[in-house]
Design a protein that fits this description.
alpha/beta; 7 strands
Amino acid sequence: MPPAHSITPASPVIILADLAAVARLAQALAAETEPGDVVALDGPLGAGKTTLVRFAVAALGGEAEQVQSPTFTLLHQYHGRVPVVHVDAYRLAGPDALAGLGFDELAENAVAFVEWAERVLPALPADRLWRVALAHADGHRSAVVTPPPGRTWAFHAETQ
């Protein structure tokens, strides 16, 4: 049995040919997540982590234009129909540093998005964790989404 935090090979690759496809993916994620869920975003620079959060915040009733990468502030909060906590873990020293931001308390009643999540993965709740691996190559982006244990994910890019 793979560890709770692993991305399973059965998760299909979703091609994100344009920004509209990223928006559809973010809207689908927003529709499936609920307060207390954490969306772990991993991928290289330019893969679309902050862009996906921007579209998700809009889908959750927040103002997309307020979303910026929290690279230097480390954590942003957005208010909408569902509160959103947005963390950039790139500069965090490790999983313990996430607690120092008050993440657990803030994320309890919000949907949390954590960029560079691999750096703090042991501190994230495995039972509420959505894994999103983003990549970019050949002029397009792609994503692999793995839902938390016991939950399903049925996004089909061509029909959504």
